[in-house]
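Contributing: when you submit paired examples, paste them exactly as shown. First protein:
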Amino acid sequence: MPVILSDIFGDPNVGIFSFANDKIAILPAGISHKKISSFHDTLGVEPCSVGIAESRLVGIYVTGNSNAVLVPYITTKDELKQLRSTGTHIEIIREKRTALGNIILCNDNGAIVDPRLKHNTIRELEETLVVPVRPSTIGGLPHVGALATASNKGVLVNPIITDNESRTISDVLGVPVSKGTINSGVPYPKAGLVVNSRGAIVGSHTLGSELITLSNAFQTD
């Protein structure tokens, strides 16, 4: 499983600008063909270059697993058309909190979500992602998607997580949970990491010690 250091538009916060699961990578509009190729080769999936809500901040707005990719209701018709042309199941979530990538942490086994989400939204997520969904926090904070990154092999999470929260996430997502930082001490793994079961792309400022933790968390070679 390859792990590479990278950036997007010269910014090491690759997770803010992009999303990946085991079937697709979604990258911002305007990204270079060379960068698209590097994501393809590392993650082993076909990338789609598109804006979300006319923004390049794809990773903030998008989340999902192999069963569905979730996008906010502010995604434009043209963007939806382009995403659906890939054959991926795209589901619009009509939730006032549009930064879905920051409030939902999921893989193919389960999902942890912001406890402020409505019951109807949680039920919709269970039906769409086809996994159990459980509200929880990380370090008492509700932005679980921003404070961690998950794959079908592991989770890398902000070091402020409590033991009880770690057990909850591990139970629901069915994988081990590891504490760690990226990009030279940034405690928000989501911001600087894109990962699936085949590979990982991490911000170019990430230290060797952080790479070791990441490799252990996601069981890379």
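Second protein:
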Amino acid sequence: MESIITREAAWELLKEYNQESFHRQHALTVEAVMGWFAEEEGYGEEKEFWSIVGLLHDVDFERYPEEHCKKAVEILESHGVSPEMIHAVCSHGYGLVSDVQPEHTMEKILFATDELTGLIGAAALMRPSKSVEDMELKSLKKKFKDKRFAAGCSRDVIVSGAQMLGWELDTLLEKTLEAMKASEKKIQEEMQAIS
């Protein structure tokens, strides 16, 4: 799997279509989580591809929320992004805003972790530390079970993502939490650099 688009070009493209710091931070988080999973799941040689897909997965969301995962095709094609990468980006909206089914392990992980990173991020903000670094799995599971907490983060998508991967829900929660712990400081630094 080749990226074709460089990380630097992908970041500039994301910033062009996403002005809100919330969306930029989410993109950086999913990028880091996808890179972590590439290493974790034995796809280290594809880490750059996985990461860039994570970075660009919501490229169209801020500007075209009604056409999410549809406008992305047009935007990415116009920047010479490979069909494989476009398929991967669009697969994360499967069953919600896209009929592109996640096929590759990477696409299934993106599908499973996109909503989950939002839930974990929201849970971190409720902590005195405002960080994931001191968050434990049992605390995350409590927030996951509370349907009123971060209600916009679909538990059904997260659960079906775990099933798609053939993982226990706890495995998905634990690994994603670990991935976010590993990247939190770097993302904070990157966000400070652009603010």
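If you have annotations for the second protein, write them as plain sentences, like these:
Residues 7-194 form one domain.
The two ends are 33 Å apart (CA to CA).
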